[in-house]
Amino acid sequence: MSTTPLTSRPIAPSSPASSVQPARSGAGSADLNLLRTFLAVYRAGTFTAAAPLLGLSQPTVTSQIKALEKHTGHRLFDRGPRGVEPTAYASGLASRVAEALDSLADVDDAVCASGGRAAPVHLAGPAELLCTRLLPAVAPLVAEGVHVRLEHGVPEELIDGLREGRHDLVVTTRRPRGRSFESTPLADEEYLLVASPQWARWIAQERGDQELCTALKEVPLVSYAEDMPIVRRYWRTVFGRQHPPIGPALTVPNLHDVVAALTRGAGYSVVPRSLCSDHLAAGRLVQLDDPCDGPLNTLFLVRRPGSRSNPDVARVHDALRADALCWNSPPKGRQKS
């Protein structure tokens, strides 16, 4: 397989202190292994993160980067407190070699040896979105023969999984800062103040002239954490106050348990619409307030660099984007106090 030469006009290093003596050869004649190591470091952001992706030790990665710097005559990375930053020359080099290296790297992964079946798509996202958003979107593709491996995690774990090559696609509430990640805003997740119908009726009867946030001091609060992060954010955004008047009467491990407790009459809380829309439509929960400026979390769909050669990754990506078009629609028959 022949490739287009990768040479280009040299770009000056970021500072005199970081200069590398010029070499006679250009990047186009470099060992492919050196270029693979370079691209892994460029995408991972650290030598430490790139090493396991390559099956190499960190000292070996460092040695290969130094060898490529000597070969090209350009410094490739500047060290920082959180990893390495590419020089201008490195960014240009990455843009020229990425597509060719990705095509080579994905040949074995994209097609299984038996039957020509595409490799499984590794998809990950927040635990509260698995059943309500991700599974409904990908289930039709699974029925058509697409293989999916679904995992959950917190935003930091999800992005680390992309960098380490464990995930092909990630849905997360934080846009990654990596320069090579392709991220697309997927939907805005709305947070709602809800309670059981019994408590909603009680609040309506007893509230009188009180503000809603004041009246809720008599209602048990359910939260998935003692410090009530979502509830406090709602109070700051909607009511202009730092926190509810009374702390949680019940804490549970996750947001699914919060919703389960509310539907059984435990009190009130703030939860994502995705977790409570069916309960609102069925009358098992009631939305207590409908502000025009309630808190939102933007969900991003992020693709791992180098996953494009697997056609099923593109199918799952497109299915999630299509399904997300209706994620922000409120359920029909929504009840409010």
From TrEMBL:
The HTH lysR-type domain, residue ranges: 31-87
Under Pfam families, the record lists: HTH_1, LysR_substrate
Region annotation Disordered: residue ranges?
A: 1-26
| Key words of the record | DNA-binding, Transcription, Transcription regulation
Alphabetical list of CDD domains matching this protein: PBP2_LTTR_substrate
Q: Where is the composition biased (Low complexity)?
A: 8-25
By sequence similarity, the record places it as follows: Belongs to the LysR transcriptional regulatory family.
Q: What is this protein called?
A: LysR family transcriptional regulator
**Could you tell me which species this protein originates from?**
Brachybacterium tyrofermentans
